[in-house]
């Protein structure tokens, strides 16, 4: 391997976590994001003339442009897949895993919007989502985004305006304090897995919605979202029927939010993410991912201090 190729490889490795974070926020799928990174790598190393670095003054900007355009092409594949998907579709959960040295590179992988926000972003056009992610999440100015997307700055500003209007209309800007989120998450999970209908009725908002994504591959996953406190409480209490199998609940951060990861034996059973009302007192939305394909990247942690064993 030549020195130029070695350098090009190192440049890609140095930016890999940034590229992962951008693509994941555009796609909501770890597997598709990994494919986009592979395609980006092939594009990066497959340039016809000399070293991948020849004639490139800003490798970071060049790599981001490649990754974003591969991600936009991948959106068409995901859309076709969604047309035959069984039941509600939710983004693939991304468990936050800090780097051992707490480095900035390791933290980039966790630079993702919440699962609830990813659901909202699904309703944007691919270009609107790309602009929103680059601008709102990663702070890219409109002029740089215009170069990435090969659009005029005016067109990018218009896309950004439409995306912000749409997102802010569907999702309030307020976010509960992390400690409040953690406490609400633990109360909710204990009530749901304990089959405590009364406690669920107290913590669920009257107009709560429960989204269960089993992809037709998990038992008990509904084919439609469940709306309203009464129906939601009955559905959630049903999870208590699995107590005899020995569910193990571990509180982890998923897409930046305190959430619950449930294991059945050694296998991941569900990832449960709650969204709170503006005052933080009740749960407004529940997102439950049980599709085993979307839990393939979920790993058990051996820190028993974060676990709650259930017989």
UniProtKB/TrEMBL annotation:
One example of a Gene Ontology biological process annotation: DNA-templated transcription initiation
Classification via CDD domains: Sigma70_r4 (cd06171)
Keyword field contains Transcription regulation: yes
MF (Gene Ontology): DNA binding; sigma factor activity
Gene3D superfamilies: 1.10.1740.10, 3.10.450.50, Winged helix-like DNA-binding domain superfamily/Winged helix DNA-binding domain (1.10.10.10)
SUPFAM superfamilies: NTF2-like (SSF54427), Sigma2 domain of RNA polymerase sigma factors (SSF88946), Sigma3 and sigma4 domains of RNA polymerase sigma factors (SSF88659)
Keywords tagged on the record: Sigma factor, Transcription, Transcription regulation
Pfam families for the chain: Sigma70_r2, Sigma70_r4_2, SnoaL_2
Record-annotated RNA polymerase sigma factor 70 region 4 type domain positions: 116-166
Family: Belongs to the sigma-70 factor family. ECF subfamily.
Protein name, as recorded: RNA polymerase sigma factor SigJ
Gene source species: Streptomyces sp. R21
Lineage: Bacteria, Bacillati, Actinomycetota, Actinomycetes, Kitasatosporales
């Amino acid at each position: 391997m030549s020195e130029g190729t070695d350098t090009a490889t190192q440049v890609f490795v140095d930016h890999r976590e940034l590229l992962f974070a951008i693509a994941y926020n555009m796609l909501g799928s770890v597997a598709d994001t990994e494919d986009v990174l592979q395609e980006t790598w092939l594009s990066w190393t497959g340039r016809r003339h000399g070293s991948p670095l020849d004639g490139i003054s800003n490798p970071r900007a060049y790599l981001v442009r490649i990754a974003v355009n591969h991600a936009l092409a991948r959106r068409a594949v995901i859309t076709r897949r969604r047309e035959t998907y069984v039941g509600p579709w939710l983004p693939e959960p991304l468990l936050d895993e800090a780097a051992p040295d707490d480095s900035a590179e390791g933290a980039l992988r966790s630079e993702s919007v919440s699962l609830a926000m990813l659901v909202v972003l699904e309703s944007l056009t691919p270009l609107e989502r790309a602009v929103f992610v680059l601008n709102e999440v990663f702070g890219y100015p409109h002029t740089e985004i215009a170069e990435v997307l090969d659009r005029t700055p005016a067109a990018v500003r218009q896309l950004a305006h439409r995306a912000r209007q749409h997102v802010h209309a569907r999702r309030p800007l307020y976010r509960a304090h992390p400690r409040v989120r953690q406490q609400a998450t633990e109360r909710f999970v204990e009530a749901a897995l304990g089959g405590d209908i009364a406690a669920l009725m107290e913590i669920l908002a009257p107009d709560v919605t429960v989204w269960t994504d089993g992809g037709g591959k998990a038992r008990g996953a509904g084919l439609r979202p469940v709306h309203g406190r009464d129906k939601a409480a009955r559905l959630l209490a049903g999870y208590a029927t699995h107590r005899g199998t020995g569910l193990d609940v571990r509180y982890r951060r998923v897409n930046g939010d305190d959430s619950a990861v449930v294991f059945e034996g050694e296998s991941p059973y569900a990832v449960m993410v709650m969204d709170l009302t503006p005052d933080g007192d009740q749960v407004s939305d529940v997102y439950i991912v049980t599709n085993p394909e979307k839990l393939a990247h979920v790993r058990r942690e051996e820190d028993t201090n974060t676990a709650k064993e259930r017989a």
